[in-house]
Amino acid sequence: MWAPFSRLVCDDRGSHRRPCGPPRFIWAPLGVSSDVMTRPALPRHAVPRVRSAVLLIALALTPTLPAVSMASHGSYPKPPLLPNCEHFSLAKMAQVIEVSSLTLEGSSGLSDTCIYKSPRVPGHYAQLLTISVEATSRTVFDRAERRAKQDAAKTGAAFHSFGPATFGVSVVHESGALKPCQPGHTVPEFGPPQCKGDPAWSSGTVYTYAPVSPRAPKVFWSVGLAREYGSFGTKLLSLSKQIVSGRIR
Question: CA-to-CA distance for 105 and 120, rounded, in angstroms?
């Protein structure tokens, strides 16, 4: 089960006694080249088709997977055909994470990495959903899991084990240690909080090593969600399972 988020929190300046470090976004772990706990990065081919505002948010918010090379397809003589995340059912995904709707904000050139956004409600953050899949070896997945566990312990993020081929990382940014909000301040479209009074910002990612279809080779999946503080671990895990199983595609 997901650990209680209330025990795994930090403020936006990292001044909590269990600092989470600088705010970052849980981008998918694919194509990352170096120390993503402080320098998150998108796959190079992902940049051109992501709307600039959301791209800046995606590069600035919460923790990603530790640096592990994903460039090699490992033991694949021929990489499996990956699903096109642009064709995933927006209505089904919105239903699972309990938002009114989702829109596709951008995708990689290969359509194997996508960013989705929920509508914004005044006084609250919009939600950001990321999905990514890449053909790579089990060795890479296992190495990434070990690094994720080590880095979570160092940064105050929470590591979650869901079995031999699924794990997760989550973090919460709170505003209690920040300066009070100025008169007229409005809650930004995305977290983390900018001042005391802004809602807390939660983020988590589930990583899975599973086949695209029953007889296909296994691939590296990641499903991440960033939103206003709340208990969403169960929803995120359910969404990941439904995407990986093919019920949402």
Answer: 14
